[in-house]
Write a structure and sequence with these properties.
The chain is of the alpha/beta class. Helices cover 48% and strands 14% of the residues. It has 2 domains: 244 residues, no CATH class; 233 residues, Carbon-nitrogen hydrolase (Nitrilase/N-carbamoyl-D-aminoacid amidohydrolase), CATH 3.60.110.10. It starts with a helix and ends with a helix.
């Protein structure tokens, strides 16, 4: 009973690291109690339950926003929303339950060392387990930039593996004295940690010296703080489709010196559907002589099914439309129904439950890059920024002097901490690709993020207004190892895990001998 309570509390501690940036140190040790308990158990059911309890503790804290999300999005009452939240939490907890089961199997059947297995298994499961919002450990480290820097080599998954390695060292180091072979493994683990942070110190110092020499652009951020609503509502009193409140804030920001203005993902504007609105926007921007980047929905009708596209539009200084980037990476169940195209029989099942709040968003076919004149912009819409490998693949074809611009709407999550989780997790893309980023949210917080992952400007959450920020940019930024080879570390991990599974499956006799040696060493017996 004590062990179950311990892993439940440690899961909640890990979740707290996702909620509060100042607790960045917690994920470096919160997994250790779970690993310690798994090392002590040779029962598969016990390993699964421990992982499940840890996962439930984690997702209830880190995913506390699911009930207000369901309530606002689907309009359910408190009790049904809580029930849906429980289903979400129970499913999400399977990530840690199955990862714990896999670790136990590889350890006990294959006799493989924990310093290899735990970082490998948890790293792969966190990034491959099918979830609506994956719990990327790197997103907890925004207040610890030293830990972020080496992601420009191997990506966020490598950072997650290093964090789990640290937890494993802590969990297994309590069983001293260790046999010589174990001590050698600790030396290797220590060298990995020293190399990670040594490179981090070097890279952070280098980029902090470079950035003050870069030119910067004065950018206006329009944060409307609109209440979420799936309906196409009319503009508020005093405004119109051709002159929305966001344009009034844009006028004010340009008067204050903005050289470029961004609007977040927000309510329907009609620009992509109605020629009159399109002409009005273009004429207004031409008078301002300042580029405008904003998001809008485009409606499509194909037979009996109505669908939409979610696009980011750039108007240049002359008011001409430079291009439209349509969202390519969609949120399952919120923007499309998984497997429906492959298995049409699933459509009535999915629609019966999710049809009330699932939009049919058609994916874009090609990533857009826009020329601002003084720099180029790579637009991303909302949760596109959370897919590290896909973002890096797009940026392989970017022009020089690129700024990442993320347009998001997180109003569906109420006053929870989810917008901060989104902001901090997305900030990893700036470091992985060494590009400046501006992330603007409908309800805030909006931020400018340096290529080091440091937050240069941060607007208040849940507060409407126009904000002026400076974004440093340079043609020397970008083109990292991770940008060129985003698949490298994840592929190594997948193949390594497969080889470990084959080893455990094919050599049970050798595994049994290793198990005896491991039991003796882990329990301090000689």
């Amino acid at each position: 009973m004590y062990g179950y309570l311990l892993v439940s509390v440690s899961g909640m501690l890990l979740g707290s690291g996702f909620v509060f940036a100042g607790l960045f140190w917690v994920p470096w040790c919160a997994l250790a109690p779970l690993i310690w308990q798994l090392n002590r158990s040779d029962n598969s059911w016990q390993q699964y339950v421990m992982g499940l309890l840890f996962g439930l503790g984690f997702v209830i804290v880190a995913g506390h926003w699911i009930t207000p999300f369901v309530h606002l999005l689907k309009g359910l009452g408190a009790v049904p929303s809580f029930f849906v939240g429980c289903v979400f939490w129970l499913y999400s907890a399977q990530l840690f339950a199955l990862a714990s089961l896999a670790c136990g199997w590889l350890r006990w059947r294959g006799g493989l060392p924990g310093l290899l297995i735990y970082p490998l298994v948890f790293g792969v499961f966190i990034h491959e387990f099918p979830m609506l919002f994956s719990p990327y450990l790197g997103g907890t480290q925004i207040a610890f930039p030293l830990a972020l820097q080496a992601t420009d080599l191997l990506g966020e998954q490598a950072l997650a593996a290093v964090m789990v390695l640290c937890n494993t060292v802590l969990a297994q180091s309590v069983s001293w004295p260790q046999p010589p072979l174990q001590r050698g493994r600790y030396v290797v683990a220590g060298l990995i940690l020293v190399a990670w942070f040594g490179y981090g110190f070097y890279a952070l110092s280098l980029w902090q010296q470079r950035m003050p020499t870069w030119p910067s652009v004065r950018v206006g951020l329009v944060q409307p703080n609109e209440l979420p609503d799936r309906r196409y509502l009319p503009p508020p009193s005093g405004y119109s489709r051709t002159y929305p409140a966001a344009l009034a804030l844009t006028d004010s920001l340009v008067d204050q010196g903005a050289q470029w203005v961004l609007w977040p993902e927000a309510r329907y504007k009609g620009y992509l559907d109605q020629a009159a609105i399109r002409r009005a926007f273009q004429q207004h921007v031409r008078r301002l002589s300042v580029p405008l980047l904003f998001q809008d929905m485009r409606q499509h009708t194909s037979g009996p099914i109505a669908a939409m596209q979610n696009g980011a539009v750039l108007l240049d200084q002359q008011g001409a439309e430079v291009g439209v980037h349509y969202k390519m990476l969609r949120v399952a169940f919120g923007e499309y129904l998984p497997l429906v195209d492959q298995l049409p029989v699933l459509e009535p099942i999915w629609s019966a439950f999710f049809g009330g709040f699932t939009d049919r968003i058609m994916p874009g076919q090609e990533a857009g890059f826009f020329d601002l004149g003084f720099a180029n912009v790579a637009p991303l819409i909302c949760f596109e920024v959370m897919f590290g490998e896909e973002v890096a693949k797009r940026l392989q074809y970017r022009p020089t002097n690129t700024i990442l611009a993320v347009l998001s709407s997180n109003g569906w999550f109420g006053r929870s901490r989810e917008p901060f989780q989104h902001l901090y997790g997305g900030a990893l893309r700036a470091v992985e690709n060494r590009l400046p980023m501006v992330h603007i949210m409908n309800n805030g917080p909006s931020a400018v993020i340096a290529p080091t992952g440091e937050i240069l400007s941060l607007t208040p959450a849940q507060q409407a207004g126009g904000y002026l920020v400076n974004i440093p940019h340079s043609s020397a930024a970008g083109n990292t190892v991770y940008t060129r080879y985003p698949w490298l570390f994840s592929s190594i991990c997948r193949w390594s895990l497969l080889l470990c599974a084959l080893w455990a499956w094919c050599s049970p006799l050798l595994g049994a001998a290793d198990q005896i040696r491991w039991i003796n060493s882990s329990r301090g017996k000689r």
